[in-house]
Amino acid sequence: MGDSSTPPAVRPGVHLRNRGETEPLPPELARHPALDVVALLTKTTPDEWVDRWRTEVGPSPDGHTILAIDEGIRSAATTPTTSSTPIFGGISLKTASAPVRAEVVADTLEIALAQPAPERQLFVWVESLTPLFDGGSAVPFLRTLRELGESRPVTAICHADVERLDDAVVDFFDTADIDESVAERLDRLRAENPTNFGYLRRHWRDTRRAIEASTRSYPQARQLHGALTDTETTPQSLGVALQALVELGVIELWNDTVGSNRYDLTTYDAELLDAIGESLAAAEQAE
């Protein structure tokens, strides 16, 4: 169903990535006629960011607010500083030294949302959460993004060092792509949900066959099961294995309801499932 060479679509929500990841900006941003953008930059200069936006996305957004953070200033004896410049060329630029206090981040968002319109979408790009963690502003910032998402479409991509993340912080994110190894992902699944791990271990081959045979983008487990022949799975056992793939980041849920879940096969990561299958097969042979 999916093409691993094409960057997957990024849905509204708060998304976690490894710091230093260089994936392109979401191409679907170009399709939003009314967009407010907030960029928290630690490595890229404002000029470089604007050039990147024009290259990867295209037209300037309705509102563009940049907070340029100097991570080089980290002495405990140094008082963090901030400054603002007038809007130029449709861009509002703020600068701050690390660590970044909560009021600095809040002010940046306030500038971006000074004239909110219900039809406008908000896109937030954070090159590194580290200076926010150091300034005690990461959690208030993430909480604010979640609250904003309740009243308007918000898409935020935040990069972070894995060692700075605890479970309470990770819970703020809708998706987390932090480059766990396949072995680490499987170990985590086995520890946190041994039932789902067991079903996936037994049925991963049929689950892969069902996904790749599907002509639907958002099927239920029973619809995927209907495409299988010569299988030991049932719709129920296949559904459990699919849930395990969701936990491992191979596919995403399209909706989670009191009835049957639907799975978003447009997010299918075939390479990751191949790697998971190889790891499970190797474990089988070693037993």
Write the layout of secondary structure elements.
Layout: E1 13-18, E2 35-41, H1 46-56, E3 63-70, E4 82-84, E5 91-97, H2 102-112, E6 121-126, H3 130-134, H4 138-148, E7 154-160, H5 167-170, E8 175-177, H6 182-192, H7 194-213, H8 221-225, H9 235-248, E9 252-255, E10 262-264, H10 270-286
Parallel strand pairs: 1-7, 1-8, 2-3, 2-6, 3-5, 6-7
Antiparallel strand pairs: 4-5, 9-10
Mean pLDDT: 84
Question: Proportion of β residues?
Answer: 15-25%
SS element count, helices:
10
Helix content: 25-40%
Low-confidence stretches: 2-7, 73-80
For the sheet with most strands, the description reads: 8 strands, mixed
Nearest-angstrom radius of gyration?
21 Å
Distance between the termini: 33 Å
